Amino acid sequence: MTLVEDATEFVWECYQKHLASPAAKKPLFVFLNGPQGSGKTYTSRRLEQSLSVKSDGHVLVASVSIDDFYLTHADQAALAKSHPDNAYWQGRGLPGTHDLHLLDSCVHQLLTHDEGTIVFPTYDKARYAGTGDRGLPRSLQLPIDIVVFEGWFVGYLPLGETNKSLREAAAEGYGLMEVDEALKSFSQRLWQNKQIPSVGIVISADVVNVYNWRLEQERALGLNQGMSDKQVRLFVQRYMPCYHLYYSRLKSEGFVGHKTLVVEVDHSRKVTGKRFLDAKGAVESK
């Protein structure tokens, strides 16, 4: 089976159980994680389409990216200027470079509104020579039954300032402690928020593939729109400490407190294996 097929069957089964739960009136959130370029955005959009088809259009699905909530270009520039020693906040991408007030507003509407329209932000990564800026918003009709929420650090758990690995990594480059604290704000709002019924999907890959995958994405934006090869390399390097600190645990344990599908992919994004984990991270038999 393909990644989308595996994800569709997993989410559909979880959604049927969700409908029989006390939280059935709320949408089911599907938190989807994968490193840059692994296919999580493509998967989330195909998953949205596949679930809609499977329900004959009766289940309303929305795919949302954590990237949609990046700060505006001007606000990101202000953040970088106010934290000149934090290399991780000199451009978009890491926890701390997002508009949390906007995120809170959208999540609140998804959880509490059963009619009307919700306006989601979008982000155009091609603007400002690849540094990006907010794009045109999109509107969706409420209520939404399933929210596929994807992002490269979705599901990561903060380590805290006493963690030895974090302290050692932070000693090599100022700013990781602030990133970890910002990650805490995200996790509390989303994947560790007990008010949000959710399951998780992890695209498990070797992060050595990230540079080539990211380069493919930028080239797809077109000449003079995306980042140069050198800019891509520098951009990806900012993410590597976080992959080493958080991603391995997520691949191993899944989304703590939630049922998780872990799908292993190779350098060509071909599925090579899968595991189903329960809320405690134990492998479930299927």
TrEMBL record:
<keyword id="KW-0067">ATP-binding</keyword>
<protein>
    <submittedName>
        <fullName>LAMI_0A08152g1_1</fullName>
    </submittedName>
</protein>
<dbReference type="InterPro" id="IPR010488">
    <property type="entry name" value="Zeta_toxin_domain"/>
</dbReference>
<dbReference type="GO" id="GO:0005524">
    <property type="term" value="F:ATP binding"/>
</dbReference>
<keyword id="KW-0547">Nucleotide-binding</keyword>
<dbReference type="InterPro" id="IPR027417">
    <property type="entry name" value="P-loop_NTPase"/>
</dbReference>
<dbReference type="GO" id="GO:0016301">
    <property type="term" value="F:kinase activity"/>
</dbReference>
<feature type="domain" description="Zeta toxin">
    <location>
        <begin position="21"/>
        <end position="85"/>
    </location>
</feature>
<dbReference type="Pfam" id="PF06414">
    <property type="entry name" value="Zeta_toxin"/>
</dbReference>
